[in-house]
From TrEMBL, chain A:
<dbReference type="Pfam" id="PF05845">
    <property type="entry name" value="PhnH"/>
</dbReference>
<dbReference type="InterPro" id="IPR038058">
    <property type="entry name" value="PhnH-like_sp"/>
</dbReference>
<dbReference type="InterPro" id="IPR008772">
    <property type="entry name" value="Phosphonate_metab_PhnH"/>
</dbReference>
<dbReference type="GO" id="GO:0016829">
    <property type="term" value="F:lyase activity"/>
</dbReference>
<keyword id="KW-0456">Lyase</keyword>
<dbReference type="GO" id="GO:0019634">
    <property type="term" value="P:organic phosphonate metabolic process"/>
</dbReference>
<protein>
    <submittedName>
        <fullName>Phosphonate C-P lyase system protein PhnH</fullName>
    </submittedName>
</protein>
Amino acid sequence: MPSTHSMTTAPTTSLLPGFDNPVDDAQQVFRAALEAFAHPGRLETLPVTSGQPEGLSPALTALLLTLADPDTPVWLPADVPAAARAFLRFHCGCPLVDNLGEATFVCIPAGHAMPALADCAQGLPAYPDRSATLLVEVASLHAGDTLTLRGPGIETTQSLCVTGLPADFRASWRANNTGFPLGVDLLLASGDEFCAMTRTTLVED
Amino acid sequence: MQSETANQANAARAAWLRILALAQSDALDAAYSRLGDAAALPGYRLLRKPESGMAMVRARAGGTGAQFNLGEMSVTRCAVVLDETEGQAATAGVAYIQGRGTRHAEQAAVLDALLQRPAWHQRVHDVVIAPLAQALTERAAAQAATAAQTRVEFFTMARGED
């Protein structure tokens, strides 16, 4: 039966395991993501490790393993390695879409340009939750341009140092704020650290 | 033509996955160790650890009626990938079995991966699949024979209307 042998070899050559304990680990990462969204701009460190496909960082991988499932379409830039796509398809079972507007999670690994925030799903007035969450890999969350954040979840102000955001980020984020209750939420990741910015988080000039 | 061979390959794989899933755990265990005694099995790592969960079984009355939920059953699944060896790419194997036998699921997944390797296919087929298929047929025949003992034939008298 020679025909049986070529079936699954091609896409599985680089498949990696996901979380060690899928339930416990996903719960811990979910808790960390919840903390990050409750305190925008505060850095969270990844509590667990997972298999990590080529092209994705530890934080992006863990967040997608935790958040993405068959109900949440994920958008990836076109030139992300096939290994990363196969990994997400196997472990999350999430649809990978080409159309940015259809995606619930827009994942931008290191070295890729961030799409315009306005092109991502903004939600509907009756269902503002049907908006996209962007997961963006940045060069650093410890050095670089300092953003002063204000808004719900921040007592006075929170400063966040980021390297790797696009030059027009402040303007596009202000536009995102004005659309409230519509708009996108943002998770910034770097290595095994991440922080969140919600659509209500204001960036001071 | 391409899709036809792919269909045949899928049918062959479905057939051995069925035999592995329906095998009795101790029989599979014995066959697995017999295979391991003959030659060392290649190393493998777990892609998805054996995990148990529930699956809803749906059915159709008479094969044509509306679908209804028959009930839930426990299912254990597992996925492994065999280590790359000379000239052999990594091969993934999967298993879905009824019940909560994590060992059964893991062994079935490894055997599925081995069956996809040309170097192992015939050996696994002879040592594992053929005896398990034989046992499955015998079990089904014994069950049918037991049921047949209490079989009742109904005859309807002609009513003479036609």
